[in-house]
Amino acid sequence: MKPKIGIYGFSGCWGEQIVILNCEDELLDIFGAVDIVDFLGGSSVNDTESRLLIAFVEGSIANAREEASLRKIRERTDLLIACGSCACFGGVAAMDARAPRAEVIKQVYGMNGPAGSWDIGPHRPLSDFVKVDLCIPGCPIEKTEFLRVVSSLLNGDAPVMPEYPVCVECKMKENECLLLRGLPCAGPVTRAGCDARCPSYNIACVGCRGPVEEANMSSLENVLQQKKFTLDEIKRKLRTFAAPVMDKMENRG
């Protein structure tokens, strides 16, 4: 019997599910190796009850209904994989997490909006609610990284995720350092895995894969000051995709 897999989306753009569907040629191999039984983005007929080996979940959690659904998924799966920066870190929707919800709702819907009638909380990553076994960061995730994770898990291996910053990938590609050219690049403190796509096109890294573990902010601050930038400019970039994580890092610091 082939292992059963579910693919789910909460508050997000469904970009990760589109990446999975865009695996194209590899999809036949995936379907041959696993039984994708619950995938609303890919099928109108789904098994919402049977036991799963792996659940791939994208999107942040913003209300009690989503939290309840996430907990149900966690209960029925052996492994839960957070896919994309919304699921891993909160994502773009979490940028306003520190703002009072009533104020945010008023700004969006106006004075006559739903106010207290809607269950709209600050967007938070999956790990704030349930155990997450692995994170695949990105906005959206990388197709090659998703396929590598699936392959490793089906072979019984723990996927090896990059634990170094984007700068390492830039060096491997022999890119000219954009920071040294005077651009506010977040590469030194952003998780690798994108093959330095933006810097390779002379676009400063925006931090969409979230902050690398033990990011050396103080060292980066020294470089930024030499180039007449401030650390706040990089932190704002990282907050775009990982505000809850940045808040925790600042509280620890």
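The above is record 1. Record 2 follows with the same two-line structure.
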Amino acid sequence: MTPRRSLWSFVLLVCAAGLGACESDGPASPEPDAGPGPDPLPEAGDAPVTSRCVVPTGEGTVHASGALDSDEDVWTAAGSPHVVTFPVTIRAGQKLTLEPCAVVRLDAGTSVLVAGELIAEGAADQRISFERAGAEPWEYVRVSETGHARFAYATLAGGGYVRNNRPDTTATLYVDGDPRSPAGVLPLVRVDHVTIEGSQTLGVLLTENGAFTDDSRDLTVTGSGSAPIRVWLRAASSLPTGTYTGNQDDQFLLEAGGYGNAAVVGEVTLRDRGLSYHVISAPLRVGGEGDDRTPGTLVVEPGVTLRFQPGSGVNVQAYTSSEGATGTLRAIGTPDKPIVFTSDSATPAPGDWVGITFKGTPSPNNRIEHATIAYAGGDSGISSYDCFVTPDERGFSNRGAVIVFGNQPAAPFIAHTRIENSAQDGIVRGWTGEPIDFLGTNEFVGISRCRQTFPKPAAATCPTPPPCPK
């Protein structure tokens, strides 16, 4: 129990003792309280709260021009429903505030475009609602790189109008940042006890560095016609606590490439939010690439599952195979909550995805522990420096669940991990130098060829045949 709730409980006990200071002046008014901002009580997990909002009647207020009445406009609860018949634009420098209990009803295909500031903060018993005006869905609340939005105790229902027959490319809440932002990830939207339900498309789309604020929490996305959230890789750390089930596709779509500047720089954490992450569009790249040598660290929390498309994988990068890696991977699970890297196929098979590749001199901070790496070993396109059994078996490129390509690591960095159903090798030790042993505490099941390959000795003479422990 938090200290604040302890104080509240104490007040209730004092009231129960019959002290006059706790007497009420009468029943609560059905009208909203004065002043914006969410009621601090109750917290998540408390019993359902009875609404004090009055169901709006009458025609309400029609917003047909798309422009605000002033640079600081307020849509009141008393003026509800606020009927949007033409897309509303909040321009840079403008601010729209919705009072607690305000109801916004949007015509089919209409939207709220936020380049300025949108404040929609209700309270536990005074929720704000965005809803359909008719049978067809409205489009979205879209926050651009210059905009900011704050939602608390609000419901966005019945949005996600589909214009391109692709429900995974738009959303009821669309956060659109700047892919070339010098500041990197842009925390443009705050949510607190927010529900997004019945979206025809995604519930939320975070793209091009658009992200939630660090203090976002308690987001519920349900009833979506696609996944609950599609998120750009660099913004994945911002996914708040919440509930994300009951959608057409109950997994997070992790946008790993396609827009430029997609590799992990700085630190990104994939948090355990109850669903798997489906890596789409490109290999998941950790560390700067090309002329960008910016270091990057990907942290994967215990209990997380990552699912990969054919040809995809994890690339922990270096500019060349001879220099220090710009990327670090920290995937440390626990015995009770292992981390899983696997295929996205409904009927998985060895080689469905490439695997995890470490290029250059691996960072001494790399760690994979209490994990499972399954159904990898697809064509990596890499011809490393290990000793191979025969050219016919090897082919042009390595095919292993884990490939270390470049320089010898300082120590084995994989422990208590199960590598299973690789199309060829378990761990490719693709360097010239000493044969550091990765077998240790790891388990290998269903490996087609070597559990670990043999690195080329510094004298450049491979044993004949090279050791290949099965």
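The chain has two domains: 51-255, 258-470.
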